[in-house]
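Recall the central idea of this unit: under ordinary conditions, the amino acid sequence of a chain determines the structure it adopts. In this exercise we apply that idea directly, starting from the sequence alone.
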Amino acid sequence: MVTNRNIVSKDLENFEYTPKQEYQGKFSVFSEADEKAMLMRFFTHIQLVRPAIYVTYNGDSFDWPYIEDRCRILGLDLKEQSGVFKNAAGEYGSSHSSHMDCYRWVKRDSYLPAGSQGLKAVTSAKLGYDPLELDPELMTELARTDPQTLANYSVSDAVATYYLYMKYVNPFIFSLCNIIPLT
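Accordingly, the structure predicted from this sequence is:
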């Protein structure tokens, strides 16, 4: 987890967020001086880890466009820093890795009704627990007064997305690969 010390009132210690025993989440925290340093830490981490798959929930419509916009404002280039770019279909990926937007799987293959396709509802239905919820109006205040609560909320989405991918999306995709012989 990377925090922006211009927003978050104090440095956080590494911590664990484990909503159920089978859904472990251990997080290292990096506190950076400002937004640009925070993005550069994120890109450094990508270069170090070299992920084969990026997993997001609605990342094509929210996360990647937001990061791309913030990069543009701060004089950074998303593709140059991470290799990630938007293709002609409006999906983000790179030449060295795939991007799996779990929201697209939920919409297409989860058989959940349209009103139950948000991450919180999907976590409840598919993973069997209720994730942390915060009023968006409180987030800025919590960054100042209770950054640990905000950190727990932030990583709760990451834990839910990761385990949704590992438990449902990845096996589904690999099952399809056994049926449909594509590279």
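The first strand starts at residue 2 and ends at 4.
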